[in-house]
Amino acid sequence: MQQYGGVYDPEDLSVLGRIFDEAVAALPASMRTPENRTAIATLVLQRAAAGEANLASLMNLMGAIASAA
Question: What confidence tens digit (pLDDT) does each residue in 19-66 have?
Fold first, then answer.
């Protein structure tokens, strides 16, 4: 498993958590598997680590994931 380093303040963690929760909720119930939840969390953290932690960028990513489901 690849590790992502970074320190996020509580406000950033709250935003990232909300994005993750919304992305998982957008999936059909049958796709809310532990593997898919892990994949979504990984995508969110990768984008945040790449400096794309702004809400609009990550929301676009989550929209793409949800539309592909």
Answer: 899 888 888 899 899 999 999 898 888 888 777 656 666 677 667 766
CA atoms within a 13 Å half-sphere pointing along the CA-CB vector of 24: 18
59 Cβ neighbours under 8 A, 6+ residues apart: 19, 22
Please enumerate in sequence order all residues whose Cβ is within 8 A of that of 18, keeping only pairs 6 or more positions apart, or say none.
none
Residues in the chain: 69
Query: What is the predicted pLDDT for the residue at 53?
Result: 54
Domain boundary assignment for the chain: 10-68
State both tokens at 33.
């598997």
